Amino acid sequence: MSSTAKKKGFGATIWDYLTTVDHKKIAVLYLIAGTLFFVIGGIEAMLIRIQLAEPNNDFVSAGLFNEIITMHGTTMIFLAAMPLLFAFMNAAVPLQIGARDVAFPFLNSLGFWLFLFGGLFLNLSWFLGGAPDAGWTSYASLSLASPTHGIDFYALGLQISGAGTLIAGINFLVTIINMRAPGMTYMRMPLFTWTTFVASALILFAFPPLTVGLFFMIFDRMFDANFFDHLNGGNTIIWEHLFWIFGHPEVYILVLPAFGLFSEIFATFSRKRLFGYSSMVFATILIGFLGFMVWAHHMFTVGLGPTANAIFAVATMAIAVPTGMKVFNWLLTIWGGNIKVTTPMLYGLGFIPSFVAGGVTGVMQASAPLDYQLHDSYFIVAHFHYVIVGGIVLALFAAAHYYWPLMFNQMLNETLGKITFVFFFVGFHCTFFIQHFLGLMGMPRRVFTYQGDQGWDLFNYISTIGAFLMAIGVILLVVNVIITAIKGEPAGRDPWKDGRTLEWAIPQPVPYYNFKQTPLVRGLDTFWIEKMEGNKEGMTYAEPISDIHMPNNSFIPFMISFGLFVAAFGALYHQDADKAWSLPVLIAGLAITFLSMIVRSLKDDLGYHIHKEELMNEKGGKK
Amino acid sequence: MKGLKKWRLFGLLAALTIFLSGCGEEYLSTLTPGGTVAKEQYKLLLLTSVIMLLVIIVVVIIYVLVIVKFRRKKVGENTIPKQVEGSHILEIIWTAIPIVLLLIIAVPTVSLTYELADTKAMEAKDENGNATAVTVNVTAKLYWWEFEYPEQGIITAQELVVPTGEKVYFNLKAADVKHSFWIPAIGGKLDTNVDNINTFYLTFDKESDSLKDGVFYGKCAELCGPSHALMDFKVKTLSKDNFDTWVKNMQATKGKKADKNSTDLGEQVFANSCISCHAVSGEGTAAIYPNLATFGDRNRVAGFIEHSEEGIKDWIKNSQKLKPGNLMPVEKDLNKGKEFTDEELDALAAYLMGLSVEK
Amino acid sequence: MDLKTKFTPQSWPAHPENATLEGKNKTLGFWIFLGGETVLFATLFATFLALKNKGPNGMEFSTQSLFELPLAFIMTMLLLTSSLTSVYAMYHMKNHNFKAMQAWIAVTVVLGLGFLGLEIYEFYHYVHLGFTFTQSAFGSSFYTLVGTHGLHVIIGLAWFILLMLRNSKRGLNLYNAPKYYLASLYWHFIDVVWVFIFTVVYLMGVLD
Fold first, then answer.
1. B191, B215, B314: best mutation site toward chain A, by most A Cβ within 10 Å?
2. Quick one: where is this thing mainly located (chain C) (predicted)?
3. What is the pTM of this model?
């Protein structure tokens, strides 16, 4: 219990991770699971591009293609981008605010296992009769008509993983409000913490509409309800509204933390405090707020009428203002700085023009009458990949390099990192830039093939070449991880030398209780302040060494999630007349979940204390 | 200085126009607008593109300067830059200028949004009580399009025929799942919902016979199942006079039927195997399956297959393979459990090619 | 946290639910969770309003033909009263009077069960008339909205009962005081949602 340095057996390590409530280990779990799903989604992307490389290709069939695009979108958004961001939030945010853990360590673990079991359930559809095939948006008329169980896997899987996300969001909100170290006022929080905070608030308000929408879908498909059946009074447009009331904030849930990561990276590698910190915070909140007012811009062609379209068009344009503020603040952060082009910084420098390009096409689409042309064409595909890949994925890759030493006490190879960047970046622009023009030239999205000689052949081919370059980039990143792990050189504290925030002040490897003494925060960029004042320890302390209270590990989160996973199979097969076992399975699964919850409620689980003497003797401390 | 700036803007615009119009095919591309709606949208595209290019240029200039000037190699390994907090003036500048730029976009956006949604003239009647505008009821069905002209009492499928030089109004709906009606060169799309009817208008400036295939291309723009990609239709635009003639010819097919006892083998086969779903008279109202009265005049078989006797035979034999999930029965189900003989197929194809109101 | 500390009404803190960091986190977290719940119910209300009285052509059911205000009014009164009794329970918790707190929670549970019984009777009655979950979009949205509330009632009751049983021997301490507090907070939330259901579903359904 006392030290992480003890050598553990393989089984013990696995058990440790299955039961852990430590935010640093949960971060690793999120990273592994997110990467796994990212690779799956990436393979799906490659299949899409291979199929579209030439006209009338028959590499995959029409039905399979629809399953692939659906799973590509769903996987990348729900199972790759969000968990990977959660990985970095878990790894960095508690340390950035000087906390020993998140507010609810148990729920943190529960959130992860719910996400993982939901994701597994969704992906099992490939082996159990077919994946969902109505697009990641799963519009109601098509998804109700879909004959396989795919959509049921989609609805139930997202419901489970969505619950995990909601829990994670609440956890971060409370952590950031209640667990800040003394002196860490709101306006001294690092921007990544701020964006995590706002993104968590968005999760809180955006996920319930998705939950409700998915329940309607589940009820309609599995229990004969009529929410979307227009012959029985239902209305399919309700699904579209609910989906986008969730779906648009979701974009900001993803992109705000990406902004936060880049804000840290720009400041660090320019050796300069973030320019216009307070307006950056303001812009973050404003984007979060406006994010809820614009969902109908995804529905300009649905026929909501000119007044609705005009209002939502103007509201959407308004978002460009705070976003523009951010871009200029980043540029001015670097301006006059002392730039070191490390791999994370290289991603940052690649991010600015890519994201601006994605942002401006967003403004073009905000213009409703123009969007009548652009909507559901390849222009949209280009736009959202510019935002998601050019914004979020670049941020994830940057953060992987940036926070690797924090999470694993090792540095990824810089040269290989830069080569990775070049392949990925060039491939990304090669894949997606040209798709703007495909859209303008009349190519609809989500087509499994196209006829030759419509003027689209060459551009599609170029796009596919770009996809392969991106794939090479991703493979190189994986290679880099393996090489680094084999080498196993410790990186030590403040490996980038220019660290500014508290997470870099902590010794490496990070002790399992994080801070031996809670730090006293004396301003924005605490660690930088201490360094500039010549404080070798990097921290001023707010308290003497004393006992630290720690939570116990628990296997219950795993069991709760597993119960829902089992129950989902029961619910899914409940509609098949020949599967009488489905109802018992549903009940058994729910029983596992509820019994686990009751055990959790009835047991006294008070945690344990690390005693003062133990802390004094420990090596991982300040020396 | 001001003049110079204007000139630059104009230059940029001209370069952009030339660059964009080099892209795409005239019958399909939004960059070669063939009607008022598409032209207005294209203007908006140019306006927004120019403004957005300006933004990009500003960002790129600062960006390049930053990278060139402030690299550690130049600044020095141990230099600690001044820790600047921010600048109120700069913040105001980069808040105010974007707002102005957005207003420039917002004004035409809002006015065009209302303009394009104005379908009041659909209801207008002349002194005889006839509608003054041409209205088409479009019904999107699993992988094909039905076009009904309620005023004229005629109906066709897969190939929309419209007059040039006037607003043509559309009532859009879907019969099964949601689709979206899009003729890129003519104007933006509008969804065909299952729950309600959407209305809008389009105008067609030129006659389509000068185009490569003699038609504009139309697309389904909303994922609707496996064959979403193949749910194409074509648009034939005729001068008003020719359109009126076409309507008369269509109306004249009233009562046309395939005869089981015909001397033409193709007609016999059609009467035995096809007539229960497909009508050959273009007069009438909405049906469940595609009307074939103008089949011989069309540009494609099933929306995308080459329009020839070979294409027809291929379609009858392999419709499920060519367009997965469509509702056309397989060959054996059409012909009482047997495949058609080559002779029967040839005759049927020839008969179908002869179904025409234009020849 | 030390469970062995014995409190007297004098040493008992004024805000026992916020006396420990865990308690503070739980209280804040629960308020935030209720924020999410509010959005959830708002979505259900919006859907109900959109699908109210919508069904297959010629459907005989409508809010006017189905709903009876007296029954809904009695249910409202039961739930409102139970909210009040849970306030009494919390009053006694703050004064470290464990027995009185348990007693008032028991009263709350009884009132809640009464409400639940009437709701089950109401649903049974509608189903008997042919107005079911699968009959129409109106039915689906009605049962989902009111049923989700009913599910919350069941969860709230189960929570109260578990707390009473679990702590009957242990008495009140700083570990379980936040739990009592949050259960009662949840109960108030359920009550507020019902007030909206009564207004939007029943009153507006019958009157307009």
1. B191
2. membrane
3. 0.94
